[in-house]
Automatic annotation (TrEMBL):
Protein name, per record: Polygalacturonase
InterPro entries for the chain: Glyco_hydro_28, PbH1, Pectin_lyas_fold, Pectin_lyase_fold/virulence
Source species: Medicago truncatula (Barrel medic)
Cross-referenced Pfam families: Glyco_hydro_28
Lineage top rank: taxon: Eukaryota
């Protein structure tokens, strides 16, 4: 039997092989350790349930042993079931999930009798970056819960992705701060039910910009507890526009303040810029600016609705003050150009400035309708008239 003397180079090769086996779930890309869901058992064939593989890959990512980037590779479709939970805190302060392929939700007929609140749920992950060029398909054609839910995810960044057919709100962010959502695409049919594009609840210091949103409900909904929210370069339509609220449901105390919605375009839809509150609610909505707005055949372009869902007046209401509608131009479907329907307690410090909205319906020219509104109206080219009390 021949015994071979190993050279140093042979031992080095063996060592490298052993090291490769020990870290078989980690790859080095551009000098950084990167995890791939394929190496945790995901098939990516659009049929096999890859949920377990995603969970195991995220656990490894969260532990921080193989770097801070998890890749969902291009050219594959990954079928995952609700609720897919990704929970922190994580060892790494910055977690990057890079979606290059497609992530697919089950159809309603494949879901069985389970009833999950969310499809994919991110919880308590600080510094999360969700990006890539892939598609998140909520498969919501025949059932409509939240698609992506982010709770307590401070420093969240979402960019580059395409979100289609959400089973409810496409992206929902709650109890989080220092958020950026930009350069994504959201697309659901006009007839889809409750498919908000982006929902923000108790979200602080948020920047949303450069996003086209097509949905069956609110393009963006800014809900109770949200502060210092900036929205710009967003195109909405179809859908219900950018809404503040609804606030004060079931008599609850809610507030929003320091909101800036600027340089946005609305193509069709049931409304454009809107504040909506329930009669009987408590709290306030203040320091809100809607500015540099372009309208194309949009219903209810400028709207304050304090009798949400046509609910009758009650003895208390959410207080609305320091609201500015400025430089708003374009066309509406019929006469409802400016509707400010405030509760008996009144809306105060309401500013209308530089507005030109014309109706495409010659039989129903654009009009202004106000109730219990106090403030100023200047440079109103169209619609004619003013019902703001100085």
């Amino acid at each position: 039997m021949e015994v071979r003397n190993f050279k140093f180079s042979d031992l080095l090769i063996v060592y490298i092989l052993i090291l490769s086996i020990a870290s078989c779930n980690s790859w080095v890309v551009n000098g950084e350790d990167t995890l791939d869901v394929i190496h945790y058992g995901a098939k990516g064939d659009g049929r096999t349930d890859d949920s377990k593989a995603f969970v195991e890959a995220f656990k490894a990512l969260c532990r921080g042993r193989y770097g801070n980037t998890l890749v969902v590779p291009n050219g594959r479709s990954f079928f995952v079931r609700p609720t897919l939970n990704f929970s922190g805190p994580c060892h790494s302060k910055n977690i990057n999930i890079k979606i290059m392929g497609n992530i697919l939700a089950p159809k309603r007929s494949d879901w069985g009798r389970e009833c999950s609140l969310y499809w994919i749920h991110f919880f308590n992950i600080h510094g999360l970056i969700l990006d890539g060029s892939g598609v998140i398909n909520g498969n919501g054609e025949d059932w409509w819960s939240k698609a992506l839910q982010f709770d307590k995810c401070d420093g969240l960044q979402i960019t580059g992705l395409t979100h289609i057919n959400g089973p409810g709100p496409h992206i929902a962010v709650t109890d989080s701060q220092d958020i950026t959502i930009s350069h994504i695409h959201i697309n659901s049919p006009k007839e889809s039910h409750n498919t908000d594009g982006i929902d923000l609840t108790r979200a602080i210091r948020v920047n949303v910009h450069d996003i086209p949103i097509r949905s069956g409900d609110d393009c963006i909904a800014i809900k109770g507890g949200s502060q210092f929210v900036n929205v710009s370069q967003v195109t909405c339509g179809p859908g219900h526009g950018i809404s503040v609220g609804s606030l004060g449901g079931h008599g609850s105390p809610e507030f929003v303040e320091h909101l800036r919605i600027k340089n946005c375009t609305f193509n069709g839809g049931d409304s454009a810029v809107k504040i909506k509150t329930w009669p009987g609610g408590k709290g306030y909505a203040k320091d809100i600016i809607f500015e540099d707005i372009i309208l194309y055949q949009t219903n209810y372009p400028v709207y304050i609705d304090q009798h949400y869902m046509k609910t009758p007046e009650q003895h208390q209401a959410v207080k609305i003050s320091n609201i500015k509608f400025s430089n708003i131009h374009g066309t509406c479907i019929d006469e409802n150009a400016i509707v400010l329907d405030c509760a008996k307690i009144g809306c105060y410090d309401i500013t209308l400035n530089q507005i030109k909205i014309t109706s495409i319906n010659r039989k129903k020219p654009a009009s202004v309708k106000c109730k219990n509104v106090h403030g100023t109206a200047t440079n109103i080219i169209s619609p004619k008239g003013s019902c703001v009390n100085h």
